[in-house]
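Re: your question from the hallway

Yes, I did run it. Sequences:
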Amino acid sequence: MPAQRTYGMDHDHYAWSPLPARPVLRWPDGKQLALCVTVLLEHYEWEPPADAYSLRRPSGGIFPLPAPDFIRLTHREYGHRVGIFRVLDTLAAHGVPATVAVDALTAEHYPWLTRHCHERGAELIGHGVAATQLITSKMSETDERATIARSLDALRAITGATPAGWLSPEGAESARTPALLAEAGVRYLCDWPNDEQPYPMTVPSGTLTALPMFLEADDEFALWTRRMSLPQWTALVVDAARRLHDDGATTGRLLVLNLRPWLIGQPFRIGALAEALAKIMQLSGVWAATGSEIAQWYRSQGHGG
Amino acid sequence: MSLAPHRVDYLPIIDRPRIEWPGGARVACWVAPNVEHYEYLPPRDNRRNPWPRTPWPDVQGYGYRDYGNRAGFWRMLEAFDRFDLRATVSLNLAVFEHYPEVGEAMVERDWEVMSHGIYNTRYLHDLSEDEEREFYRDCIDTLARHTGKPLLGMLGPAVSNSARTPDLMAEAGLLYHADWMHDDQPVPIMVETGRLVSVPYTTELNDVPVFLQHYDTDEFVAMAKAQLDQLWREGEQSGRVFCLALHPYLMGMPHRIGQLEEIFDHLRSKEGLWLTTAGEIAQHFLDHHYDDFVAHAARYRTDPAGGKGA
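Structure:
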């Protein structure tokens, strides 16, 4: 497609909107920063379907190994067996509700775990089928609809309700994904790491609010891809939250923090999360909430979407 | 049901039979130096190149590792002696033949030998079933020849495995497999015949990935202490496993040995630790907890609520 050098975005998913030009955003009770912690329960498959797309350099393990790579497979599995409970306990200890993104293979094959998260009060959101089955432009529309339906159905079977939120496996989308999600009843989307506030997405049917995740604080991006040290990561998250909190006095800000139990849930890492949350929750104007609470509040304030 | 490779039942760590270590210890600790030989000109493998940096030979890569046996091992040995720690050595068994002095030093100290294959440049992923059976026979015979002891467990050579590996290990009479990074406790691994357990090794608290990925020794020490302290807190409810994975060519270096001793000092100064070996952890688990774990897991299989009702 040749570039059309016209005002605004080069796609139709949302409108161009420089932050200072927006109406002022206020959070409940005069809070300045909404904090949404999303915990990812991703299943990494032993043998993905032949036509599935995976990241070329997936995280976990030690270095790329020929199959069968027991090391990477089981490293990722650590989150489901052990890490998740440390992460949920740490969030609870700091009064931070959990928004848990659960993929279909996890929901279908770990019903105890999925139900456990639900019963502890976590909000469950759609997360595709598996970390080894990404939604990309290589997927047909039929397959993409089926992927979304399977993911939402698997969670409906546990909670009895359509998940309000969505985070794609590895944050990967086709150009159709927002439209198909909205059509399927999803109300908010966390894939695009492009803002400090929610914003309305443009979809043909339904309503979709973007809750942009904060990529640089994401545990995988920081600790695995960029190999920051733990003290550096804690400082990054706390510095970002403090500045967003202060800037939120003018117009409210949002911090969506992605965490992976196989990674931040390791024994030597969990203390870094506890330290970061303790410092963030000391700030007077932090509203720690689930994705739904934040998206609903945003829409209720007449910001569209 | 469990997902492929169908070898482990799901058991959340917060709902399992309680593990009790000897003496009421909270954490079973094993320290695993990897004593290895990477061949100068290994046989070509279709799927993995141990020396990708230059056309073979790569004398820098080879020499970095060879240093471990010539110098680093001996310095590391002194540190183990100073803190009276018994290692579970993850051994390329051909080291017994190439470097008998290294083998004798380990035998003298009664270190437990875990197989890490024959060479770190010969992998399991493309072996036929018969070739892999022969491989275990070789490992078992080599260890018996040099130590008179039975082989108890394996960390795959250069962490390579085949899909059949757990079955063939159990068939050969091994007790534990260390290539499972999925847990802080041993768990049963389903095999065709016999019994096999995982004893958690670590690719996180392991000097190779840590140092190759931009951290250095101070971070490694902080990680090790934080890991042990967290597991110790949790070990009050049910026993945990702490593993420290080392390589003499890295942690045996002169600028790192002081920090290795700092970790050893932390291990020695904490109450409630069972300083032991992977084989003893596996045997204790088999003797006292394996059956309970299998029975508990069966409840999850038949009832998705995990036997707790709705």
